[in-house]
Each structure stands twice: as C-alpha cells, then as structure tokens.
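User: Could you go from structure to sequence for me? I need the amino acid at each position, not a summary. Structure tokens:
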C-alpha cells in the first residue's frame, strides 16, 4: 500500500461527526474567499503603513498563485480520492492541493513581513510565524482528513506555495534578479 492510500485509510478510521465539523470549518479558512480577504486586508494595511514592498509580496504572490495552481492541476490531471471516502463533492482535479498551495504562499509572505517588521528576539515575530505556519498546516491536513486531496497533493502544494511566495519576495527585493 502506498503512502496516499495508507493515509486515506488512517483518516477514515479516526473520523467522528464532531471532528468532521471542526475540520470542515478549518478547510473553509483556506478557501479562495478567506485567503483573498486576508491578502487584501494585509496588503491594504501595509500600504497604509507606507510599506509598499511588503504589500507587493502579499498582493503579487496571492494574485498569481491561483493561476499557477490551476495550470498545474490541468497539466497533471490527477483525480481526487474516491467517494464515499471523500466527504466533499468536488469536480475539479486534485494535484496540487489549491488550499495547501495558496495558504502556504499566504503564510510565507506574511511570515516574511513579520520577520522584516519585528527585530530578533521580539515575541511577536515568533508568534506571527508560528500562527502562519499553523494555519497552513491545519488547512492542508483538513483537506487530507476530508479526502478532498491525497497526502502527496497537500505536501507538494505546501512546497510549491512556499517556493512561489519566496520567488515573489526575491523578485521584489532584488529587482535585477531573474524571477525564476
């Protein structure tokens, strides 16, 4: 049995109605509406604070991560886990996990902003980075629990989201550096 199948079997075994309700709420925090709202509020707050470079990290990464993720889904064409294990009725493709990729991109750019905002040793820096990491981990694991994605879809989504965000940070802070 491969990692994806073993993980699917394991999550099906631990499901309870209460846990499923909590996980469904968590998964909605990583959807397009929630991530867009957070990104817009963060970018506007950064612009208001006269931090246009940081606003560009957030806005640029989030505006472009969705089309990249959609392109990858269409190129790979991997189906989602099967019904009835899958608790959500989804008609789109599975790889990479869009929730994992976009929340990882958002968490990464917000962590970079926190890192640039507060000096080493300031607890706010550690708290902000921890909250950002916990957020994307919770959303990604919710997708596996609900069988909306295979574990490998989520793992690759996280990696690609972080990479995409760091490419934006690099391109904005080093304008002469190539985007790739």
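Assistant: Here is the amino acid at each position, in order:
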């Amino acid at each position: 049995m491969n990692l994806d199948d073993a993980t699917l079997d394991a999550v099906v075994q631990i499901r309870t109605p209460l846990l499923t309700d909590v996980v469904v709420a968590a998964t909605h925090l990583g959807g397009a509406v929630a991530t867009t709202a957070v990104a817009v509020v963060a970018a506007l707050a950064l612009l208001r604070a006269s931090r246009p470079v940081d606003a560009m990290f957030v806005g640029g990464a989030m505006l472009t991560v969705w089309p990249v993720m959609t392109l990858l889904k269409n190129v790979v064409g991997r189906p989602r886990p099967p019904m009835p294990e899958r608790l959500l009725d989804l008609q789109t493709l599975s790889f990479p996990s869009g929730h994992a990729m976009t929340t990882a991109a958002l968490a990464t750019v917000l962590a970079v902003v926190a890192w640039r905002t507060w000096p080493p040793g300031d607890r706010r820096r550690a708290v902000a980075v921890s909250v950002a990491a916990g957020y994307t981990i919770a959303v990604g694991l919710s997708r596996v629990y609900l069988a909306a994605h295979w574990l490998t879809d989520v793992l690759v989504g996280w990696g690609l989201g972080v990479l995409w965000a760091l490419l934006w940070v690099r391109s904005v802070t080093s304008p002469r550096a190539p985007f790739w």
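One structural detail worth keeping in mind: DSSP finds seven helices and no strands in the chain.
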